[in-house]
Amino acid sequence: MTKFLRNSWYCAGWSTDVTDNPVGIKILSEEIVLFRTSDGTLAALNGRCPHRFAALSLGCIKGDLIECGYHGLQFDKHGVCRLNPHGQGKVPPRAHTRSYPAVERDGALWVWMGDPALADPADIMDLYFVGQREGWTGVTGYLKINADYQLVIDNLLDLTHATYLHPNTVGVDPEHSLGASLSYDFKTEGNIVRSNYTFRNSPPTALFKPFYPQERGDIFAFMRWEPAGALLLDISTTGVGMPKGTGVHMPSAHLIVPETEQTCHYFFALSRDVELDNEAKTKTMGEVALSAFIDEDEPVIHRCHELMNGAEFFELEPAILETDIAGIQARRILAKLIRQEQPVREAAEAA
Amino acid sequence: MTKFLRNSWYCAGWSTDVTDNPVGIKILSEEIVLFRTSDGTLAALNGRCPHRFAALSLGCIKGDLIECGYHGLQFDKHGVCRLNPHGQGKVPPRAHTRSYPAVERDGALWVWMGDPALADPADIMDLYFVGQREGWTGVTGYLKINADYQLVIDNLLDLTHATYLHPNTVGVDPEHSLGASLSYDFKTEGNIVRSNYTFRNSPPTALFKPFYPQERGDIFAFMRWEPAGALLLDISTTGVGMPKGTGVHMPSAHLIVPETEQTCHYFFALSRDVELDNEAKTKTMGEVALSAFIDEDEPVIHRCHELMNGAEFFELEPAILETDIAGIQARRILAKLIRQEQPVREAAEAA
Amino acid sequence: MTKFLRNSWYCAGWSTDVTDNPVGIKILSEEIVLFRTSDGTLAALNGRCPHRFAALSLGCIKGDLIECGYHGLQFDKHGVCRLNPHGQGKVPPRAHTRSYPAVERDGALWVWMGDPALADPADIMDLYFVGQREGWTGVTGYLKINADYQLVIDNLLDLTHATYLHPNTVGVDPEHSLGASLSYDFKTEGNIVRSNYTFRNSPPTALFKPFYPQERGDIFAFMRWEPAGALLLDISTTGVGMPKGTGVHMPSAHLIVPETEQTCHYFFALSRDVELDNEAKTKTMGEVALSAFIDEDEPVIHRCHELMNGAEFFELEPAILETDIAGIQARRILAKLIRQEQPVREAAEAA
């Protein structure tokens, strides 16, 4: 069965990624082209020209239309061919390409890959700290992960890996954290999984240290996953014994988008609520996060993907720890949602 | 069914490509080795040594024989092993490799991949302007295209793409060509397809500009395709209203040779009939053409191939324009010829 | 049927390759991790963590245990999880990974990939000249070959290729060896194949020349293959007419280890019994050998693999010369041993 959930909003870029030219991105193994009409509205079409199958992302924008760079056919935001520049200019009936519901919000671009009738922008994750929001400053970024996207969700829903994989970036070195104590709890509400970690009396991570001068503090790391691949990590470091929400607050979004069955896009946004004008610290904050993702996470996740060698996760009979609960529940919810959206006949065969 | 036509002459290189050493090239997914016997005659053999399957192209020439570089077996131009240097020197019956009819003409090397009994050198495309022919000067070259060869034939048989893809090299920028008018007609004669374009009152292309000083002219671009992949493009730029053949003449050959189902060789020759001694302009002419093919055509065609994702062209239900007629006819002729040369049983099954 | 013999010792590295950190290597398409316990004892485990399938080679050593770098599970040399650092610390029953019999001897690390009950260290090839043995000096090294491992065994069991492929390194240029004479004989004893070459009155190879000043000599090159992929080449150059064993002696081991069906590891050791303290000559000796393997053998063998295009060797109906006897016998012995170790049902189906 497919590994992809179609009825879902997927991040396809940051607002600044799409300006005057079309931009291509592969999502769920499907070629998508993004562009803006003359008033700046985002449009998303299947990125393969229906004429000779050229990539529309290699074309250009003419007013409200996207022009194929190969033979000049022009399409509107609904994917309808509006100009055939050749001969009599007749537009043949097959000259249309699929359009996708597309929304721009909070500095992020979202595309709905499933049934357009089911697309509800209210389902898009609320990135309240991104896109020039008052009271926040931060960075957005992107990396490619050479692995099945579910392995990245697994990674993010079990933050205990930060101690081992990220001791000098976004985690805490266990050798300097004697006396710290970790507690966690996992909750599933409908199709949303939460995974909350509280480290009491811990040294701050390298990411927080520039903003939190004390040697010890309480770290609250609350992760929230929404299918298919949107994760919101709300981290704050407070004085020891202080309630969550006081101290320094550094929320981040981790938007994991299947590119193929072997690769995924990882869009991230990371903001903070202190020292809003300190651009040097903002730059460093972005570099530390990106290094943690690219230099620390990606190689490990990529090798997990390789060592699984195409097998399904549960087929391999993993040893399951209590810290895996959130990841396991997310996998079950995803599998259920994917199964539910299959055509009736397929679903019957699967049963 | 295979995508390859076996009973056809394929260009395997330019005369200058094969000198003192054997040269390997893959054609129709088959390893070929080219070499010259002591009198310079071209020979073409299957390039896999029948002993231990080494690439004969890694060997060397000993007189009229090609010596395998691995264990020293020597083969003549018929593929017969003439020397086993080991022990008693007995040549085992399996020690032969297939030979292919090979012809050198007009500075090009041609190999016949099909039934040798059907190989007729008269069928080789007449490259009347290549190979030091009196009255012409020009360049030859090569590039690899990462796409099914038929996509390159499609490209060449529909020259309307030049306006969009090559406005600064071999095409005309539409913004500077107001007042120009294009007409075209397509003809099929037997298995040959012609696709003729006439641009009246057009600015000259960058390729012609150094040789044609007027601001406007009539461009005659006459393309002729011969199966499987030989195209001859006869372009001339004349004074407005003058007959074809006057003015500057710049014919070119585009010899498209399947390497595998995913890649093809593109041998090209481009000549002109003016300023024969101007070597600087010849060099620039070659650079402009190569850049158009490598920097403009290849990336688009390669992406078409990727976006087709292994599907057959007609299965994907392309939107067909009137400018596609020549390409469509070439595809149908190729399909017919490929079908006809299949063994009887296979052909019956296909019916 | 699989191409791999499981019940065999495979070289997994040189002693110096594994020190304070775990090291990963793929053998028979299986991920292995090597590490040393606190007393230096070698351990070999399946390198995929049973928890989330991370590569254990990315982890670190904690005393006698290997710690997974992803979530910190620790395993002993038997592959048993001894520490789950999370929550209650319960170790789930699936938290174990396979261990392999591992032996360190003569400076080489060996792993038994088959039934542990059949692992007998007495079957490991005797590398009497490696690992600081008295009376010898030399080098060890490694390269990757992009080909099925049996093609490398073929290569080594037919030394006549050295004349063609290695005339300036480990072979003799035929143009300078007029008057030399070669004789050879092949013997099979049980599952061991010997392939002995005697070149009388030959110029020395480039490898021997720095140690053997005469212009001519007798070269004795005695190759011994033990399944699956261990070859011992005993070469000596003596005065013309002198018995083998006099003169300069330069034995070498060639340990060919399947990585996948398309690639193999090539561990080599090369020693000599003269000028033991001349480190400059030892360095040169190693460079000449490595160059012969990497620059001369690998490209040819890799192309053989490509041109065989996945077919079985005998299916391709090779032309067999008398010099192929040893290689053919090794292939037959390997096929027999692989067949014998298949489960009974599989063996019955094959019959």
From TrEMBL, chains A, B, C:
Its EC number is 1.14.13.82. Transmembrane segments: none annotated. Keywords: 2Fe-2S, Iron, Iron-sulfur, Metal-binding, Methyltransferase, Monooxygenase, Oxidoreductase, Transferase. Residues 9-111 form the Rieske domain. The keyword Nucleotide-binding does not apply. GO terms for biological process: methylation. InterPro entries: Cholesterol_7-desaturase, Rieske_2Fe-2S, Rieske_2Fe-2S_sf, VanA_C_cat. It comes from the Bacteria. This is Vanillate O-demethylase monooxygenase subunit. Signal peptide: none annotated. Pfam families: Rieske, VanA_C. It comes from Sphingobium boeckii. It is an enzyme of class 1 (oxidoreductase). GO terms for molecular function: 2 iron, 2 sulfur cluster binding; metal ion binding; methyltransferase activity; vanillate monooxygenase activity. Coiled coil: none annotated.
